[in-house]
Amino acid sequence: MLKFENCSIGHDRTLYEIPELELRRGEFVALIGANGSGKSTLMDSLVQGKFPDGKVSIEGRNWIDLKLMERAHQITLVDNHFLGFDYLKVSEYLELGRHSYTNFTGRLTAEDRLVVQKYIQILHLDSLLGQSTSTLSDGERQRVGIAKALIQETPIILLDEPTAFLDYPTKREVMSLLGQIAAESNRMVMIASHDIDFCIEYCSRILIIEKDSKILRSYQAITHDELVTKAFGI
Amino acid sequence: MWKKHLFSFAVFIVITVITIGFPHGDDPWFSFLTTSDKQAWQLFVIYRVPEVFIAVVAGFALSIAGLLLQTTLNNPLAGPSILGLTAGSHLMVALTIMGSSMLGLEILDLGITVSATIGALVFGLLILVIAARIRSMVSLLLVGMMLGTFVYSITNIILMKADANSVKAFSIWGMGSLQQVSIDQVPLITLLFLIGIGLAFLLTKPLNALILGEKPAAILGVKVKQTRWKIIFVVSLLAGLVTAFCGPIGFVGLIVPNLVRMFYKTARHGHLLLASGLIGASVMVLCVLLIRIFEPIMVLPINSLTALLGAPIVLFLLLKNIRNA
Question: How does the record classify its membrane topology (chain A) (predicted)?
């Protein structure tokens, strides 16, 4: 579904190349690389539709030709930096996931409400709905963020370090949940992460920004040591 | 939520009715209703109605302008006066008054409003550019205040060269007053006010997304740059309208949206806009009432009154912001 052909990644200078890569629905993909290697840059480029070189296409359509609203129906990013606001309730935050589907008033239709309700139930968020987004724990905030992304109903979901700041059981819970979402809802979920062991255990494919060659390569199965060598040159 | 709106509306009605009926001198309450004196009725229509009317318009418009600025800049300390938009209007009105006097032209209300709007627009865009480079809320506040001080100084230097009539006209306007509006000006003010408010409500949907920040809003499909241009235009129209007819009025646009968010505990801008308007109007009408209460002892300038009410709240918000940081 998401195809890269001879792409350069980087805003001001090329950080790495993606010669050829095709990601499919149902895949849970990990993007691994050293600090500053350009994991977030790839996610930003996808979200903004900005690629200096090469071609990126989704279901055959050139990615940079998509209008902003069309992109909002294809891709979403779970914002790991969002810490919430006192006055923004969880229910209101989740409803924002339907933003690109509503008319100019922003009012949700009955159908929109059904979608919101569906993911609230799947992620067991009923008890948090009236709570302020600023009072959520890290794990709760991650689940709420994922729910908002699901509510946006895009075939591609990106998450920038979704397990950072989480304790061990919550990391497992989040990774398992993401794998389940990819497989059951037929979406492509891509995470940028430093938790390499979790990525090896849960992800169906690992993308490594190779330190030496500055090329992004895809691996279906890889050992911890191989991954460390390729990504960090150790 | 609608119960809270009902409460706010009830508060607004009560304050407005008390202010309208407040006795003048030795007259009884609501004397204009009971008196057969035609003159008393005329005084009511000519002086009291426009004063309360412009207080409602000013409070409603400034609070909504403040809310729009705070959302688009992701800064609860933003407001038209504190970020220098009012100072921009101030400068443009000074230039218009002086220019008209030099050319021997009559100054039209619409001319003053347009120049005040352009002044606010120029400084609004400047703040937008600066805000893209400054992430700290307090730093942006300081930049806005410096900008305001700089522009007020330029205005004062320009006035040094002006003739006595221009200086007098500008000084009266610059003190800020709700008593300068005549009944003839009401239709024009109403029209511009309704256009501004209508446009603000049309921005409800992107505003809801913009509270998350620039990038998350774009992910949701918001054309961020275009929306910010629209917001700054609406803010300039509303702030320019109020500044043109009342002079510079500070703090209302900053404090009211913060009070509304605390009381309503929501991020839905449909509700926040309505509530800010109602509470802002109530605050300004309350100021009119306070001016009338203290009238026998002293004449309170509206600017000082809004600053007295607003400064402690701004201080509280600043301390809260520093503590959270």
Answer: Peripheral membrane protein
Same domain for A169 and A216: yes
Contacts of residue B220 in chain A, CB cutoff 8 Å?
A: 72, 96-97, 99-100, 152
Residue A89 Cα, gap to closest chain B Cα (Å): 7
CB contact under 8 A, A99 and B268: no
A118, A136, A153 - which closes a domain: A153
Structure tokens at A19: 């010669």
Cross-strand partners of A159: A78, A191
pLDDT for B325 equals 61
B74 by DSSP, 3-state: which?
Answer: coil
> Domain with A232 in it: what CATH number?
3.40.50.300
* Weakest mean pLDDT among A48-62, A84-98, A205-219: A48-62
Q: How many CB atoms lie within 10 A of CB A226?
A: 14
Strand partners, A191: A30, A159
* Measured distance CA(A93)–CA(A70) in Å, rounded: 21
pTM of the model: 0.88
Statement to judge: residues A56 and A159 lie in one domain:
yes
Q: Which of A1, A219, A181 is closest to A78 using CA atoms?
A: A181
Residue with tokens 């339907």: A98
Q: Is the pLDDT of residue B279 over 80?
A: yes
Is the pLDDT score of B270 beyond 80?
yes
CB contact under 8 A, B205 and A105: yes
- What number of C-beta contacts closer than 8 Å exist between A and B? 71
Domains and CATH numbers, chain B: 52-167+184-324 (1.10.3470.10)
**Is residue A143 domain-shared with residue A167, that is, in the same domain?**
no
The answer to whether the Cβ–Cβ distance between A152 and B220 falls below 8 Å is yes
Over residues B9-28, the mean pLDDT reads 88
Does residue A79 have a pLDDT over 80?
no
| pLDDT tens readout for residues B29-72 | 777 777 677 777 777 778 788 899 999 999 999 999 999 999 98
Tokens of residue A225, six digits: 């040591």
DSSP assignment letter at B47: I
Asked if residue A3 and residue A70 are part of one domain, the reply reads yes
Distances in whole angstroms, Cα of residue B266 to Cα of each of A51, A133, A140, B7, B79: 38, 11, 20, 16, 20
B79 DSSP assignment: -
The number of helix segments (H) and strand segments (E) in chain B equals 15, 0
User: Secondary structure of chain B: what % helix, strand, coil (to 5)?
Assistant: 80, 0, 20
Last residue of a domain, one of A132, A153, A174: A153
Give residue A146's domain range: 80-153
The reply to whether residue B219 touches residue A76, judged by beta carbons under 8 angstroms, is yes
